[in-house]
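QUALITY CONTROL LOG
STEP: pairwise intake check
CHECKER ROLE: data steward
CRITERIA: each record must contain a sequence immediately followed by its structure tokens, with no blank fields

ENTRY 1 OF 2
RESULT FIELD BELOW
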Amino acid sequence: MTGDPALVRGLAIAVPVAAMIVATARRRPGERDVAAAILATLWNLEALIAVNLLAQDLGWWHFTAREAVYRGIPVDLLLGWALLWGAVPSLAARRAPVPLVAALLGWLDLAVMPLAEPVVVLGEHWLAGETVAIAVSLVPGLLVAGWTAGGSRLPLRATAQVILAMGVGMALPIVLTGVWRQPTWVLGLMTQALAVPGLLGLAAVREFALVGRGTPLPYDPPGRLVVTGPYAYVRNPMQAAMTGGYLLLALLDPVFLAAALIAFAYGAGLAAWHEGEGLTARFGQEWTAYRRAVRAWVPRWRPASFPGGPGGVASVYVASTCGACSRVGAWILARHPVGLRVLAAEEHPDRLRRITYESADGRRAQGVAAVAHVLTHIHLGWALAGWALMIPGVGWFAQLCVDAFGGGPRTLAVRTGSVGEEA
């Protein structure tokens, strides 16, 4: 096929699509298989955009196409590559070992790349670029697909979905519109403003994974109704976060106002209808009661509580015989937390050494992590601070600072009372 650009570009998209059709015809994919194919393709699409941009800058290869291109990359080649490394192995080699599939597809790519001239012109060090593409695109995509299809590694596949959503929903539109070409002070203010809907969305994904044991993807949903965390404030926190982010970006480019309207229309229309039907069928009265208490799009200031329902009542144990610790307990009580009991650490059957939070379903957090969970029971302002402390790394650093300034764990003496809690 060397020498015929039209044939190269046609086969680049036709072959992966044909392979997908054959794979689905041989065995009808289930919901998890569809989810795996979608996620793997999106992962490869985002990663391959970055790799191909880097390849052109570093001279690994470049493209001669002039039509239907994005930043010099032929769109048909890009889509075909993403499908070949994403959806095709997800559908055609569901149970094959990742190293074997990666080796076969990598070998195929090494064989085909030189045949793609003159559309793809290889540089002297193109093998280095191919290695990078396999490492950051092919292998992670196969892993995400395998975790999704098998329902394993929930934290990792939820994290992958966050990365994909931020890439497709935020990073790509920002790059395409060029709104990042702003003065530094404007970008700084916009980043801080975007942190608010960002925290809401991240916390919602986290709650889906930890409480619901599922992900935001409709084909990989939670197994139980989630009414805690951001869901105690607004019924659709992820959709509200994305729409809110677009509205903020509309201050820099009006095209994001159209994006916000589309996101709102989809969330309030098709998504609300489809998800509502499914949730009613799966959770019945629990969903009906929750829908009555928590509205969509406009967050409550104080969280909703369902003491006898799926959310239950959480507890925080604070030492009553430790001066600093008891003041923390008093501070919490003064703010009238919703769905939270404040109990003396001395009453806990374990020898607690830090302030301890226990959710209704038995999850436990201590120290700064416990305080972060407590804040989500007060009001939306404090909840945002709590969700920020739950970001991996942030809570660890905060705990390190607390310990360094004398707020480390203390030993609770039996009966007499020198308590072991830390705020």
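ENTRY 2 OF 2
RESULT FIELD BELOW
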Amino acid sequence: MFTRVANFCRKVLTRESDSDTPQENHDCQDVVIIPRAQHTISRQDISDNALKVLYRLNKSGYEAYLVGGGVRDLLLNKKPKDFDITTNATPEQIRKLFRNCRLIGRRFRLAHIMFGPEIIEVATFRGGHSDNNDKDASQQANNGMLLRDNVYGSITEDANRRDFTINSLYYSASDFTLRDFTGGLQDLQQGVIRLIGDPEVRYREDPVRMLRAVRFAAKLDMKIEPATAAPIVHLAHLLNEIPPARLFEEALKLLQSGYGYATYQQLREHHLFESLFPIIHRNFTPQGDGNMEKILNQVLKNTDNRLQNGKRVNPAFLFAAMLWYPLVEHAQKLAQESGLVYYDAFALAMNDILDEQCRTLSIPKRITALVRDIWQLQLRLPRRQGKKAYKLMEHPKFRAAFDLLQLRADIEKGELQKLSYWWDEFQQADMQRQKSMLNSLDDEPSRHRRTRRPRKHTPKPQQ
């Protein structure tokens, strides 16, 4: 796919072969400009709205380029999820050009140009940081993390501020050329995820880059370059300093992009998973063959299959399945230690598990409410006598609860599998068959049903 491009890059990059000192990182080199005839990007594959933004910026005298994942995906013959643009126009200048523009962000000032449901994100060229920068534009914590990054510069400086070489390719709509400042085309062809600059410094600037490295490696089926991978293990703790709301958004990208299982394996390999899901990490077994590991593997594979087949997924179901066995273990512990009936212990355990998980991932209440519904229905599904089965099927989250029941049944077998088969048949049966199935149920009370004690009758005092 990249034969012509690769040959061209090799010819240009051979200028480095005369040097006795190998290049240790991919800081910005002299730009390699690839003409239209030697790359595969066509305007037909670019959003019309993105082209409108590029043309208007160019017409107004500004530089403007398509950049980042959109360019990368076009070169890989994939359909980009979105299109990002970078320019030498400041956010305020961009807003003057587009009435449908709004400015967002403090840490990174960005312009969002709204075209109905499509948003074209436009960023101003980033510049390098120095001690002379205005604190309102640039601010860095003592640990190296960038708190504010609104220093503007040239396209060359911007390329140096990007994270990975494969995301540092610039497409121009004015002359249809591709600009490569960091050897990104070569890395794209060789399937290499490589940070620009010193990996440890770049991770300290923004620890989320560690998660991005893992996500791109899984999504694009690439390898993380050894120098890029090496610092991750001892810097993984820096994720604890990232706001939980941001980590929640990153977790959805990691696990709900169609490559969740492969991403999960990478997160485990690089010791990043425990920073996102400490509760789950505590419950891993030495052999990795516990019920929790099994349900994790299966729910992530199922999620990938649904997404790859164009079906929708709900993060509430994913979290409900992932946290199910830690919930059960905690509920059993509470019941034993406090003497509470299991149902009450289960309710307390739900609060504890969700509260602890939300300290690392700020899961919105609209999602945790659905997680609670799915969990509570697990206790109700065995109770099918009378009209209970019909009422359960009318519950808005019945289908999600049944899916979790099936996952559990495939792992635990036994009575749970019988229950799963029963519900599967009951949903598909006609009215007559459903009545027959209900009549044949065992009349004994379910194991979680409370039995009432007979009232003590105290004799009335005689007058």
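INTAKE CHECK: passed for both entries
DESCRIPTIVE NOTE, ENTRY 2: Residues 117 and 290 are 43 Å apart (CA to CA).
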